[in-house]
């Protein structure tokens, strides 16, 4: 319960933050991979630069939503200079809470028939 | 080619990344460079120029949005941490904030005055173009002889550098038709006076050329204050009429609340409405001078150019009208920027006070730096832990500076409120020095100054303390105790700071000491009169009612008889002015000076004639003010126009012209030998124009020959102010239309004449007192710290047989050495800065030995007192305990 409350205190997330969390939902990634994934999934609508990416990563890391991962790829595929990030349990809770918030907004929009074209008299 | 390109863009990227906080870069810079490299590679594969441009745009925007956010975040964290630290050390926090508040408050207060009076442009459009014109008689030492109507016209017509030249003179008239007859200060001005200054009326209009035509219907402009205070800001005032000088005057407008230069007036009228200025005889007389002249430079014309042209015109006048400008007076004309002219009296005093306030702030900074250093010694472990946890040195420095700034900011806010409280006192003070005092306020610039002062101080004491705290933080973690080497280094820095504090305190104390010595000297000066129990009442007669000399004489005789009959009155006199009268002190002796010649001593061509001040007095003037008769006799009631013209002179004049002779019986002339007056006696000297000015040669003439019923002087048996009402009523019995104003005792006027040096000395003393307190606290603090660091050593000394007396002497000695060093530097500094106070001192040299010795001894005594407590504590150290504890 308190966990949930704490997670909700982060809402609403900025689109960049939400998409970074989403990018890490299916496994750890390094910075450039996150950037690529976000761009691909949002069809370039959310474009992160090096500055905004690491600004967001720094904040998410200090709030405990993500953490540096100890798992690294096999030696042949690894680049030592890269750091890998993973979603923490708390980060996942925040992402879920944000997704639910957006889901509820969608339900309400549907209930108000926002998507249907208005009938002309 | 490709690699070169790469390395250039990487360099550029790295340069941009430097905008991010240090900690952030430590964590992410390598990765960011990697990501950027990947992005570049990708863009290069696609090969489009626009893609490259887009990447750069996104990168730059990204860094510029991230950097401020990251810095802000760190600032918030640091502030929160600093506030926690401040709560944890309330003693340090309170002392540091109070010290800084006093320093910043003193500076803000003085700066608000300096800013309004010296720095801000005049509150008129293009105020820098306004100039003040002046004619001088250099050989007579007269700096401003004013202008006659002809001269105003000549300078106006012959110059090419001014877009306008206007005249001004001040008069007092009586205004009827609004309650009691009201004596109004009247500015008589050219029709375009306000246009030249760029002043727009808030009601009605200003003057037009037709208003100044001879015989035009008299019109008036009201000043904002007079309109508000006397007419309750009546919106329908325009068109109302008042009687003045036997004529009906119509109000045509009200001026806005702009500062009035050259002096405050209640109303303004055009030159044609002034009965003196419009008299045909006055207009025709080239030598009848009473006006000031102001001009506005044409755009692009410099002051020097205008001044040079005025000189040329003056030489032309000199060759054309040789009689009006004789060779022997050194006639010249020049111009000054109006800004300079209006602030010339205030400048030296204000600059001295600003320097004093700056010194107080420097001392405060040194003291807070010392406090911070002492506290830092206790925080070494905390810093070392933070450093071990990954905080870089610059990160710690940033944290310390944030703490410093927060302290200074709170101190600054407190200082601002102190300055705000003292503002009306300062305005009153500055009003004695300059007409610009009314512009003093705490505005955005002053607030900005406070912020800069706070920021500056925090940088000074923050950096001082941060730079000298232990550089080897890990060492302090390892050994746990304070390392001796760095401890010594810190102590040295602290000692230097103490020496600086003492040196600055010394200089401030010297400033205050000199001003007080000067004030004391001034108070001891013989004024030449007995000012106690004499009341002065300024009377203004209606010029239109008293038109002949006989009318004046009848009035004077009636007045003297009536007032003498009043119980409690010992003697009564009438004079044109009285010693220490504020208006005449402000105007100086020049306004009442004239040149004359002595019978049998014709003035040779090229030789300057003697100059004297002049006063017309009734016979009892000398008895009323108790001015002693030295030779000959005083005036009697029989010295009138029926007998020969007679005058009295003072001793200064006797010494100048007849040093070894008896002047009684000699004759002098003020009109080139047309009329001669015989000297019938010599009276004592009077320092009429302020105690600091030596007595000038003076000629007294009887009122019966020169009726000038300006001021009534009454010597009373008891406290004179109690008779003020009765005397005013008695004057009104003779003529109810006389305005009786500026009722004040001569003693009061004498006291007020010293207000300037008194306030300057008090402010300096306040600053010096603050400095002394701060320095004492500093010396005491460092001695206490010294003792606490040397407990072991002192313990050993005591164990080896040192007596408590020796220990006390040792500690006191150290305090005294620092103080002596400070005094040494202070003496040099005070000598170097002596020029700053020189012009403000009276009969005291700026390197006055007595003051220097006195201040030195005061500081030494203060150092002994401050070091005594730590010395006692040192002497009381128990050697057993001290040796075991470490």
Structural description of this entry:
The complex is a heterodimer of chains A (121) and B (886). By secondary structure, chain A is mainly alpha-helical. Chain A has one domain (2-111): Arc Repressor Mutant, subunit A (Orthogonal Bundle). Chain A has five helices and three strands. Chain A has helices at residues 2-8, 15-24, 31-41, 50-62, 89-111; strands at residues 29-30, 66-68, 84-87. Chain A has a three-stranded antiparallel beta sheet with strand order 1-3-2. Chain A is globular, with a radius of gyration of 17 Å. The mean pLDDT of chain A is 87. The radius of gyration of chain B is 37 Å and the shape is globular. In chain B, helix 2 (22-46) packs antiparallel against helix 3 (49-88) and helix 12 packs antiparallel against helix 14 (444-468). In chain B, the strands form three sheets. In chain B, strands 13, 14, 15, 16, 17, 18, 19 and 20 form an eight-stranded mixed beta sheet that branches. Chain B is α+β, with helices and mostly antiparallel strands and 886 residues long. Chain B folds into four domains: 2-88, no CATH class; 127-343, no CATH class; 347-524 and 755-885, no CATH class; 542-737, no CATH class. The two termini of chain B are 67 Å apart. In chain B, a hairpin with a 2-residue loop joins strand 6 and strand 7 (247-254). Chain B is built from 28 helices and 22 strands. Residues 480-484 of chain B have low confidence and may be disordered. In chain B, 54% of the residues lie in helices and 15% in strands. The longest helix of chain B is centred in the middle third of the chain and has 43 residues, at 346-388. The interface between A and B is medium-sized, with 19 and 24 residues.
